[in-house]
Amino acid sequence: MTHYVIFYFYILKKLFEVIFLFQIFSLCKYLIYRSMKWIKKYNGFKKINESVDIDTLCQQYGITNYTINQDASIDVEGNVRLDNLGLDRIPLKFGRVSGGFSCENNQITSLEGCPNYVGGNFYCRHNQIKNLVGGPEVVTGIYMAACNQIESLEGSPREVGAIFT
What we know:
Helix content is 28%, strand content 15%. It is α/β, with parallel strands linked by helices and 165 residues long.
């Protein structure tokens, strides 16, 4: 009979050890899950210039066929149209645009963020622009900045393929 009692207590002890280890394991699993959730939400690991989700902005503005560069600027294969959106600034930083670039009829006050190179026409008419700083250096087609409050031609393009107005 004593053997049975000792065996019974031995089994009980092992059972409690297993339950205790399971509880420890569950607690560790829960803590890891909670910390991973926190890490996913934490934005501090991203570089400052990548804190905005570029893909989301491109989708929002209908920009497709783009490549994100090291400096968080984007190159676009095709046209970019940011017309009539009520913008007060260019929402992304563009590098090269192979087609046309248009940001007409907004409230933009600066061309900062515009592409350096536009492989078609560049239109920024009907905004609040005072100079051309930040605008493209090369436009292979028309550069149209009329109907703004331009006070200075500072930042004018180095090369325009057709009309500059």
